[in-house]
Amino acid sequence: xxxxxxxxxxxxxxxxxxxxxxxxxxxxxxxxxxxxxxxxxxxxxxxxxxxxxxxxxxxxxxxxxxxxxxxxxxxxxxxxxxxxx
Length: 85
Fold this sequence. Notes:
Layout: H1 3-10, H2 12-34, H3 41-59, H4 67-84
Helix pairs in contact: 2-3, 3-4
């Protein structure tokens, strides 16, 4: 691993964001599973985690500092998942 990979691996703020996104996915997934909705805990956690990672990596782009473009694509992807349900 190069120095950049270790910096990302040891970044406490990144791990806090990962933990918070997983927790939010768990809460949403548990609520949906209790009400017997089609998308359950695992799917909700993966959606929240994936969204957080895309936004985090989108904000790290050197040339483009516009995270709203990345967020727009995430919203499109979540809409596609919702349409499939």
